[in-house]
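Worked problem 6 (solution included).
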Amino acid sequence: MSVALRILDDGAWVSVNDERRVSVSELWRFHEPEFCSCTLPDLVVENFQQVGVDGRTVEARVYGQCIACGETGITPWLPVGRIVDGAYRDIDRESVLRPARAPRAHARRPSQQ
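Solution. The predicted structure is:
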């Protein structure tokens, strides 16, 4: 079963099967020592840059700002949801997100805006 992933409204939303599912202005905590000097960056999501799927995991790269140190930038691929039985399921984005490991080149297909 195929699932349509898109970025809508100039990077404000991730759409799954034509439903807005993930929005900017969320606060994400993730483990990525290269993003900033904070042990766990607390990132205000400002814009979705890319969205893709690796297996059943929906992932996104976002632009945002760490509220602790002020650093801005683009994240690595971070999980935002899962596809289960053809339907989108949110993951707990209030917990610490773990960046995706080096994906297989053919596994992730970023969406086109």
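Discussion: Residues 5-90 form one domain.
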